[in-house]
Amino acid sequence: MTRLNKQEFLKWAYDDLLTNTTRGVLAEYIVAKALGIRDTTRLEWDMYDLDIDGVGVEVKSAAYVQTWEQTKLSNISFGIRPAKGWNARTNVYATDTKRSADVYVFCLLEGEARERIDPLEVAQWTFYVLPTIELDRQVPEQKTIGLGRLKALLPRECTYDELAAAIHDAAKINRGS
């Protein structure tokens, strides 16, 4: 049997960074880089996407332009459904339905012209950071949230360079300190 080439597989499977699933993983990576997380790799299906010093961070992504042919730009919407979180380290589900993370980071890949969009260029992203307590207080049962409604919750809108500070500030608010 021939051993397959990992780089060829990655190019075959993940070369198009605009696809929804790949863009979502890329958004998680961008946030991890902003937070200085370097010693861990992504853990699929965990109760939240990133852990920074005990702070759970949930990362959501959206874009106006998709991989498929579009007749109009996509409406921006993010999933915020409360769930019974699963701990990948212990293989145990939470007993109650809730939003497990302390902070939500909503990552919007800006741009309306496919040929000019580069998802690896962090300047093309806008980040909206919100303590989970605000979602729980204002939209407790809501499963998705559009961009307009999200902005009405007054998240901290920031650039990549401001992202780590915004996440740490939101975590303090969420924990009441």
TrEMBL record:
<protein>
    <recommendedName>
        <fullName>Restriction endonuclease</fullName>
    </recommendedName>
</protein>
